[in-house]
Design a protein that fits this description.
alpha/beta, 7-stranded parallel beta sheet, 18 helices, 13 strands
Length: 371
């Protein structure tokens, strides 16, 4: 079968790569053409466009780059038409993917969507368009199936692919890892400021402002695969901070605590059982728009899934040095950490077991055979 996969961002690349492995397992002669990243490229197939070329974040940033996005959308449609896939698989990245899905459905392509757009967070009216343009939607959060049920849309809950990704990550020797990156013996506080330049710039300076107040710990920045070290170096300056490039899972596996940008990383940190503080700070205009359309009580996936505050969230004007310092001191306290760990174990149960990628691949192939 011929598969056309469209993923964006580092997380889409990760989940796309695991889905591709599962597709090859079920369909060894699969012909896969995709938009993604390095991880998907390592699995096989043909990379059409790297996600780094389209890494725009926030309403204002998207508007500034609208012409570029329109060019990408036009090119994507032409490329699909030339490839003539048996199925198009969309992975997250709703701003781009929903536009392609609308066109693809009209052209008569089979459309499958893996990892639902976050319509449960804002603009729920988009469900009508998704239902119209997507033949099968595979969701990864336990509350999403019930959400879509309200709109008479039968979706498939497959479990969360992060459980597979973490289970498949190669175990490391902590002593060797510390020596390799010159991390010493102090407990590690991981800094995960995000993957895009805009979000890193906003959050990292506040995170780094705590370094001199916690000298019994080693602060380590998790470098994103989409950014060069020089970008971080300019912000670190003379501070005693370490840096690990593109090894977030390895870093989390040896970390004592973490300061984490909102997004998928909050869930990854929880699954590695690392107490965390969630940080969000966007541009003024982007935040003002988001505040008016997002209807959720929480911003982190951890709290959303558990439907209560498991981890502290510091959002926009609350992300200050003083408030972050207090929140970090809190998660370093042993009794407080015990409560977090218990909630983390409950969280993992809610997410289902292993096998999200394989379950999705089998369903996609089954749908293809029926069509």
């Amino acid at each position: 079968m011929k598969y056309y996969i469209i993923a964006g961002e580092a997380s889409g690349d990760l989940h796309g790569s695991n889905l591709m492995k599962a597709l090859y397992q079920e369909d060894p002669h699969a012909d896969i053409r995709f938009w993604g990243g390095d991880l998907m490229q390592k699995v096989g197939g043909f990379l059409v466009s790297h996600y780094k070329e389209r890494a725009f974040m926030g309403f204002l940033e998207v508007l500034k780059n609208l012409n570029k996005l329109l060019v990408f959308i036009g090119f994507c449609k032409k490329d699909i038409a030339q490839f003539k896939p048996d199925v198009i698989i969309f992975i997250d990245n709703s701003g781009f993917n929903l536009r392609i899905a609308k066109w693809a459905k009209k052209q008569g392509y089979l459309t499958n969507y893996y990892i639902s757009p976050q319509v449960w967070a804002s603009r729920a009216t988009r469900v009508k368009k998704i239902k119209r343009d997507v033949d099968q939607l595979f969701v990864i959060l336990p509350f999403e199936k019930e959400f879509y049920k309200k709109f008479d849309y039968d979706v498939t809950f497959v479990g969360h692919p992060l459980i597979d990704a973490i289970a498949n990550s190669v175990p490391i020797d902590e002593s060797d890892f510390r020596k390799e990156h010159n991390l010493g013996n102090k407990p590690i506080i991981a800094l995960l400021p995000g993957s895009r330049k805009q979000e890193i710039t906003k959050k990292l300076s506040v995170m780094l402002s705590l370094v001199n107040d916690f000298k019994d710990y080693t602060f380590v920045i998790a470098g994103a695969p989409s950014q060069d070290f020089s970008f971080y170096k300019n912000r670190i300056g003379d501070l005693n901070v370490s840096f690990v490039d593109n090894k977030t899972y390895e870093l989390l596996s040896v970390s004592y605590a973490a300061l984490v940008a909102s997004g998928t990383a909050t869930l990854e940190t929880a699954l590695f059982k690392v107490p965390q503080v969630v940080c969000y700070k966007g541009s003024f205009i982007s935040y003002q728009i988001a505040k008016r359309i997002i209807t959720l009580k929480f911003i982190s996936l951890v709290n959303l899934i558990m439907n209560k505050e498991v981890v502290r969230e510091l959002i926009q004007n609350d992300l200050t040095t003083q408030k972050l310092k207090i929140a970090l001191q809190e998660i370093l306290d042993e009794k407080f950490r015990e409560k977090i760990f218990l909630n983390y174990f409950d969280l993992e149960k809610k997410l289902g077991g292993k096998g999200a990628s394989l379950t999705t691949a089998k369903s996609i192939l089954s749908n293809l055979k029926k069509s």
